[in-house]
Amino acid sequence: MTTLKKWNLVQWKRWNQLPLQQRSGWLVGLIALGATMTAVSATQLTSPAFWRGFITGIWASDTLILIGFLALIQFQARKR
Question: How far is CA 9 from CA 16, 36, 65, in A?
Answer without folding.
Answer: 11, 30, 21
